[in-house]
Design goal:
It comes from Sporosarcina limicola. The chain is mainly alpha-helical and 452 residues long. It contains 20 helices and two strands. The protein folds into two domains: 346 residues, Amino acid/polyamine transporter I (Up-down Bundle), CATH 1.20.1740; 89 residues, no CATH class.
Length: 452
Amino acid sequence: MEKKISFSQILAIGFMLFAMFLGAGNVIFAPMVGQQAGTNTWIAMGGFLVTGVGLVLLAIIALTRGGGTVEKLAGRVHPLFATVFSILLFLTLGPIYVIPRTTSVVYEIAINPLVQTKSNTSLYLLIFSLLFIALTILLSWNTTKFVDRLGKIITPIFVVLLIVLIAKSIFTPMGSFGQPQGDYISGAFLKGFTQGYYTMDVLAAFVFGGIFIKSISSFGIKSEKEVSKIFIKAGMITIIGLIALQISMAWIGASSVDQIGYKGNGGEVLAQSAIVLFGEIGIYIIGTVILLTGITTNVACLAAVSEYFERIIPSVSYKKWLIIFAVLGLVITNFGLNTILTLASPILLLLYPLAIALIVLIFTNNLFKGHKSVYVGTVIGVGFVAILDALKDAKILKDVIDNIFGFIPLFENGAGWIVTGIIGFFMGLLIAKLKREPISLINNAGEEVNNS
């Protein structure tokens, strides 16, 4: 008989998933949207929430419908694409970018203000990163303990501190919203839409899938159908939390300009806003929040990437992969936050559109009868412009690319891949009809039904 779990257990799983998604890097983007968008904040946040939050739930559902792992989902395009996309995705969400970024952000906000007047801060970063990543390894060692450690202990602590910070900013606002800046003046929604990429939560949903399903299994749930139901229920709890959090962060940013002026990044906005709201104790409040959200992100990412590589290279155990990727993350961390952040945009501009395309395709699978050519055509169309956007962001042939491909609608706004993706979709559909490709439908249980 299939074991059932209680609402309180689902709530704990939802909190765990919320903790995994909510990282130190996530809370620094919405404040910048608020600062820059000013009176257009809510329009910009509409776009931000689509890519930064709304698509997360769709990604969770898409993962359950697509076979439970990102490899199976991407494999609908081609096995080689699945391999390349998955490896790049897991490495980005793990040792190459997210773990170093998170560790560096925690250091910059929670530790650096305490040591910045002293010499040799690179030594402090090395010492801190060694301790922080060692703690990450310890908490990642046994994935079946994730719910107890993240969902029941760490998450409630930083949620309470965040609520205190947010409540103070609402009841004693720092100031009024300023005038929109730059792209937020006339293109606030699309600008917010692309800024939502930087939360990386849609990509994280793909990465966390395997480790999350393992955690559900620790409750004795074995049925794929039941795991999917719990996955979605816990996902709803996570989404509600993320929406409330990101809107609150945008509010803090938008209302902070009168007191602290415009800042270069969201970490500065939060740190200085906390000081305005609470005085010197504010830096300890925001520092604790960033420290706890940072450790949850690092634990989730390190465990997920290690679990994935154990799956594709089983000769190396999960715990050995933990050590390998933790050491790699430690090395990259000590290049400094600015160096790490320069790697972010091009990678995200490449991966995010492809991830969104896969989500849309899995949801519309039965409408186009699951024809493989539709998957291939759409991904080629999306990937072509995504590569161009990544090259532009990396300052490679930017003017040449703009001159040649600027005619594509929405290209200037970083959304030209939508147009080329639609073209690729219909070209793939035409090819599928001409070749009379097999039908591959997905039923309500997320099971594949193949027909000739």
